[in-house]
Design a protein that fits this description.
The protein has strands spanning 3-7, 10-12, 18-25, 32-39, 46-51, 58-60, 68-73, 78-83, 92-100, 117-118, 122-126. By secondary structure, it is mainly beta.
Length: 128
């Protein structure tokens, strides 16, 4: 059974940090691009970051570039999103998702198309 489970969300003050985890099961990550999305109340789900199937190439939305870092621990089948210098506008439910593609690179997804597997989401709230 293919499953994604996010964890690590919570309430943090502006300027703080959180690390989200996406635990995968049933996946061979060598054949999947994993991306993080987020959805704020009243807004569409937007792509935040991606890591390619080799786990070597990453990409970020302009709004998080320089603050967020995506990484993968293949031995643990887990993908992480380290979020530093958090801002109130980062408040959202964060989802990890998998797209079955092998690629040398990945692009931050503009839509959810092609992502067939999703976690349940984890809430991140940035507030003083």
């Amino acid at each position: 059974q293919l499953q994604l489970v996010e964890s690590g969300g919570g309430l943090v003050q502006p300027g703080g940090s959180l690390r989200l985890s996406c635990d995968t099961s049933g996946f061979n990550l060598a054949y999947y691009i994993i991306s993080w999305f987020r959805q704020a109340p009243g807004k569409e789900r937007e792509g935040v970051s991606c890591i390619n199937s080799r786990g070597a190439k990453t990409n970020y939305a302009d709004s998080v570039k320089g603050r967020f870092t995506i990484s993968r621990d293949s031995a643990k089948n887990t993908v992480y999103l380290q979020m530093n210098n958090l801002k109130p506008e980062d408040t959202a439910v964060y989802y990890c998702a998998a797209s079955q593609r092998t690629a040398l690179y990945c692009s931050v997804p503009r839509t959810t198309n092609g992502y067939d597997y999703w976690g349940q989401g984890t809430q991140v709230t940035v507030s003083s």
